[in-house]
Amino acid sequence: MLTRTPDRHAKAGRHSRSSCWPLLLLAGLLTESRGAGDFDTFLKPFFAEKCTKCHGEKKVKGKVNLKEITTAKQFLGKPKLILDMIEAIDANEMPPEDEPELGENDRARLLVSLKAVLRESASAEKVKPVQIRRLNRFQYNNSIKDLFHLNRDVFQMREKLMTRQVNYLAGKPDKMPDKVEVACLSLQKSGGFGKVNPFPRDLRATHGFDNQANELTLSPLLLDTFLKLSVSILESPDFNEGTVGIWNDFFREPAGGADLQAEVRKRLEPFLMQAFRTAIDGETLDRYTAYTMSKLEQELSFTDSMKKAVSAVLSSPRFLFRYGATNDRQDLYLVASNMAFFLWGSGPDLELLRLAQSGEFSTLGVFNQTIDRMLADPRIERFLDSFPSQWMQLENVLAATPDPKQAKLFNLDKSHPASVQMVLEPLLLFDAVFIENRPIVELIAPPFSYQSEFLKTWYSTDLMPKPIDEKQVAEENRAREQRRKTLEATIGTTRAKLDGLNKRTDFYIEKKSAKIDVASGQAKWEAAQAQLVAESVVLSKWYRIGPFGAGNFDEAHAKAFLDETAVDLRKAHGNLKWEEAKDLVDGKIHMLSGPNSATYLYRVLRTESARPLELSLGSDDSFKLWLNGKLVAEKKQIRGVAPDQDKVRVELANGDNKLLLKVANGVGGYAFYFKAQQVPLPGPLVAALKVQRTRRTKAQNDTVARHYRAIAPELEPVRREVAARKTELSNTIKQLEGELNGLPGPQDLVKLREEAQRKFEDEMRNKMRLQTFERVALSDPRYGGVITNAAMMSMTSGPKRTHPIARGAWIIEVIFNNPPPPPPNDVPPLNEDSGAKNQTIREKFAQHRKNPNCAGCHSRLDPLGFALENYDIVGRWRDKYENGRDVDASGTLLKKYDFDGAVRFKENLLKEERRFAKAFTAHLLRFATSKELSSADLLTIEDIVDKTEKEGFKIKSLIREVILSESFVRSN
Questions:
Q1: Which residues touch 465 (CB under 8 Å, ≥6 apart)?
Q2: Is beta strand 597-607 parallel, antiparallel or unpaired with respect to 655-665?
Q3: Could you tell me where the beta strands, DSSP code E, fall in 523-654?
Q4: Could you tell me if 185 and 769 are in contact, meaning their C-beta atoms sit under 8 angstroms apart?
C-alpha cells in the first residue's frame, strides 16, 4: 500500500493525494459511476432510434448487433464494445457519412453516459495478471551495462536510432542546447563487445513497441541462446578492467589473508539484489556463494570463479524474466522495477531497491521524489532512445528506397543515405520537448526545429546546382578566343625575330664588332692552342666484336675468345667480325647484350709524344684492359654500371697506341662506360691549327678566325648583347606560350552543367555525413513537427509515389491511437497503373472507394493522408504532380474541420489537443505497462488527461501521472 507522508511536494501542494494512495483512488472510481441506470432511460431508446437500423434490424454492420442487448447487465458485460462505441462516436466516425449527424448535445450526453457505463463495467472486470515476459534486447543490454558499469554497449544497438555524441541530458538541463552533435549509426556495422553471441531480434507489437509481454516469450531454443550469450559476454576480450567499472570491487582478488567466503558473500549480495531486482533471501545467497567457492576449490582464479557465478546469475530466469505479483498484495520491488524499465530501459538501481526494501517507496512523497530523480538522471536517455522512435515507427524510414529517378540524392551516399539525417529531426524535437517540459502539442506544431545543413538544403532549395549563365559563358568564350588569336600572332612574330637572330648571329657580331681589333688576341690564342694540339691525344673511333658466349660468368671473364695481345681487325672469329661502332660516344653508358658472354672493344690512341693518360671506366659486370698487347687493368665484380667507377692511369708511347677493352657479363644485360682526357676542340679546327699559319688555306684561316671570334674576350660585350637579345626573345616566347597553354579552352555548356552537378552532389554527400544540428526558428508552417517532416513522409511512401493511405494510417495510429482494422482479404490492392496517365492519386482512389467494403476505412484514412499530398516521396513540398496536375490536399478532419492543405490541417489538429493528449497518453501507458490496454485503462487515461489539462499537457506531467496511475501501479 502506498501512503502519503509529509514531504516537500505535499507542503508545496504538488501532486497531492489522499492517504492510502492509490487504493482510495480506485474506490473513488468505483463509486462515481451510475451508468447502468442510464441504460433503460437513455441508452436503449437512443440505440433503437439512431443505431439499430445498421446494427440490428436489417443489417449487422461491423458484427455489432445492438438489438440483442436488451438489459443493462448484458451491456455492462461488453466492455470492449462500449470502448469501441466511445472511440467511434468521439472520433465522429459514427453515425456514418450517409446517416444524419448527431447534435452536439446528444453526442456529449451519449459520451458521458457511455463512459459512465464503461467505468461501471470496468470496475466489475477482473484484472488479468500481468504476463511473464523476458527482457527484450534493449533492456538486456542496458541491464548488463548497469550491473557491471560498462563504458560501452554489449551489442551494436541498431534499434537506437540516435546517438548523442555529447550527452546533453547530463546535469539536469532545463534547456536544450542550440547546437548538438548527433548521428544515426543504425546502418553502421560496428559497436558492442567483440565475440559476443547475437541477441535475437525482438518482435514488434501492433503499435511498434518491442517491450510488449505477449511478444516477449522464451522457447527452449531461445533459452539455450541466452545461456550461451551470458557466457560469451564474460569471455569477450572486451570484458576487462578497462571496460568494467566494478572490476576492482567485484572481480579483483582480495588482499592476502582475507576471508574469501565472507568476501564472496559480501560482493554477491548487492549484485544479486540488482540482477534479480528484489530482496535476496539467505538461501539464494548461500547457493551462489557455495557455487563460487566450489570454483575456487577447483583451482580457478578468484576472477574466473566470480565470472562463473555471474554467468549463472545472468542465465537465471530471475534475471531474464520480468514477473507480475504472485498475490493481491502490492509488491514495491515490482513497482520499482516497472518504473526503471519504463524510464531507464533497465532494472532498478540499488537506491530504488533500498526504497522498496525499507517500505519508504509506499509513501507518495518519496514516490514523487523518486520520479523526479529518475526523470533527471542521465539514464532517462534510454526512454528517449526507445519510446519516441517506436511511437513514431521511425525505424521504417531506414528501409525507405525511393526510385533514384525521382530522388537521386536520397541514396547518393550508400553508407549515409538521406534517411539517417531525416530520422534525427523528430527525435531531437522530442528530446527538446522533454528536456524543456513543453506541451506535447508542440510535437505537432513546434515553434522551432533541429536541422542539419543537409535538411536545411533539403527543405528550402530545389536541390539543383546553381544554373549556368549561358550569356556569360558565351561572352567568356568570345574573350578567350580573341585572346588566343592575339597570343598566337604575337608568338609567331617573336619567334620569327629569334630565328632570324639565330641564323645571322655571326653577321650581327661581325657587324657590331667591325671596329674592334682582334688580330693580336687571335695570334696569341692560336699559338697557345697549337701547343695544346701538339701535346694532345687523338682517339680513333671504336671497333667492336661480340658477344662471345660462355658457360658462365667466370668463363666469360677468364677465357680469351681471340688473340688479346695482337688484335687483327680483318680477322673473323666464327660468325663474328670486327665492326666500326659509330654509336659509341665517350662519356656515356652503353648497353651490351647477351648473358654469360664477353664483348671486345678496340681503338687507337695517337700522341705526338710519350705521356701519361688517365682513363675513367665503369662496367657491369667485369672488364679487362690491354694497351699495346699488355694487360694493364682488370676488375671482376657483380655490380651495376656507373660513370667513373674505376680510374686507370696508362703510359702512352709516341705515335699510335692500341687499346683493347673486354667487358664480360653474368646473368642479364650488361654495359660499360669509357672516358679519356683530350683537347675539347672541333676536328676541323685541330687540323687547321696543325698547319703553320702562312701555309693554311683560306678555308682553314676562316675556320680559325670564326672560332676565335666566337670566344674572343674582345667581343664578349657584343656576344652578351646578342645573347641577351636572344634570351629576351626566348623568354617572351616562353611566357606567351605558357599563357597560351594555360588559357582555358571554350566552355562546353553540357560539361559545365555536368561539373556543376558533380560539385553539387559532392557538397550534398559531405552534408549527409555532418553530425551538427542547430535549433532554427520555423518560419514556414509547412515544415516541422512529428507529422510534416521528411522522415515521416519518406517512410509512408512507395518507391515511385506517395501512399496517402499509409500516411493516413500513420496519423490515425500515432496521433489518434485509433488504428483501423486490416483491409479485407478479398479486396484487391490499388492498381497504380490503371486509369489515364493524367489522373491524380485522389482520382484513382475514388474508384477504389466505390467498393463498399473499403469505403468505411477510407472515409477515415483518406482525409488524413491526402492532407499531406503536397509532400512528395521524400518529404519535399510540391504543388503539382509529374503529369502537371495540381495537388489537391483539401479535406475535412473529424467531419468538422475543413482544410485546404497541411498547414490548415495541423492548425485543426491543435484544436483537438485533448484528443491528441489522450492518444499520446495511451501510447505512454501501453509502453509503460508493456501490455495491451484494457477498457479500464481508458478510464485511467481520461483521469490523466483531466489532471494535466490545466498545465497544457506538458510531457513530464503526463509521464508522472502515468506512473502514479492505478493502471501502472497495479501492472506489477
A1: 753, 756, 757, 759, 760
A2: antiparallel
A3: 537-539, 543-549, 579-580, 589-592, 597-607, 611-620, 622-627, 630-636, 646-652
A4: no
Q: By residue range, what is the domain housing residue 218? A: 145-152+192-202+210-324
What is the total count of domains within the chain?
4
**Segment 285-305 mean pLDDT:** 96
d(Cα 706, Cα 711) in Å, to the nearest integer? 9
Residue-averaged pLDDT of the chain:
86
- β-partners of residue 627 are 630, 659
Range with the poorest average pLDDT among 138-142, 420-424, 835-839: 835-839
3-state helix, strand, coil in the chain (%, to 5): 50, 10, 40
Cell of 716: 664578349
Q: Which residue has the cell 503499435?
A: 207
Q: Hey, what's the cell of 283?
A: 538461501
Residues 310 and 399 in one domain: no
Q: At residue 137, what are phi and psi to the nearest 5 degrees?
A: -60, -45
Enclosing H/E stretch for 757:
helix 749-768
Is the domain of 198 the same as that of 316? yes
- Residue finishing a domain among 678, 706, 727: 678
DSSP code per residue over 618-656? EEESEEEEEETTEEEEEEE------TTSEEEEEEEPSEE
- Is the model more confident about 832 or about 545? 545
**Model pTM score:** 0.73
Reported as half-sphere exposure (CB side, CA atoms, 13 A), residue 22 has a value of 20
Whole-number pLDDT of residue 806:
93
Is it the case that residue 27 has pLDDT exceeding 80? Answer: no
The contacts of residue 588 (CB under 8 Å, 6+ apart) are: 673
pLDDT (average), residues 434-457: 97
- How far apart, in whole angstroms, are the C-alpha atoms of residue 87 and residue 81? 10
Cα atoms found within 13 Å of the Cα of residue 303, Cβ hemisphere only: 13
- The C-alpha atoms of residue 375 and residue 358 are separated, in whole angstroms, by 22
Domain boundary among 882, 911, 940: 911
% of residues, the chain, pLDDT over 70: 88
Determine the pLDDT at residue 832: 55
DSSP state, residue 873: T
Which residues are CB-contacts of 63 (< 8 A; sequence separation ≥ 6)?
none
Residue 660 lies in a domain: yes
How many Cβ atoms sit within 10 Å of the Cβ of residue 68?
A: 11
Q: Does residue 906 form part of some domain?
A: yes
Q: How many residues does the chain have?
A: 972
- Of 310, 342, 337, residue with least CA distance to 323: 337
Question: Quick one: 318 and 228 in the same domain?
Answer: yes
Other CB atoms within 10 A of residue 286 CB: 11
* 581 shares its domain with 664: yes
* Whether residues 119 and 196 fall in one domain: no
Q: Specify if 180 maps to a domain.
A: no
Q: Is the pLDDT of residue 92 over 70?
A: yes
pLDDT in tens, 566-576: 999 999 999 99
The Cβ-side half-sphere exposure at 131, using a 13 Å CA radius, reads: 15
Residue-wise pLDDT tens digits, 208-219: 799 988 888 877
Q: Does position 489 have pLDDT exceeding 90, yes or no?
A: yes
Q: Quick one: pLDDT at residue 86?
A: 76
pLDDT category of residue 65 using cuts at 50, 70 and 90: low
At 867, give phi and psi (nearest 5°).
Answer: -60, -20
Task: Decide: helix, strand or coil at residue 784.
Answer: strand
| Residue 407, pLDDT above cutoff 80 | yes
> What does DSSP say about strands 897-899 and 891-893: parallel, antiparallel, or unpaired?
antiparallel
The arithmetic mean of pLDDT across residues 335-361, rounded, is: 96
Contacts of 341 (CB under 8 A, 6+ apart): 139, 211, 322, 347, 930
Distances (CA, A) of 682 to 309, 538, 769: 100, 12, 71
- For residue 703, tell me if it sits in a domain: no
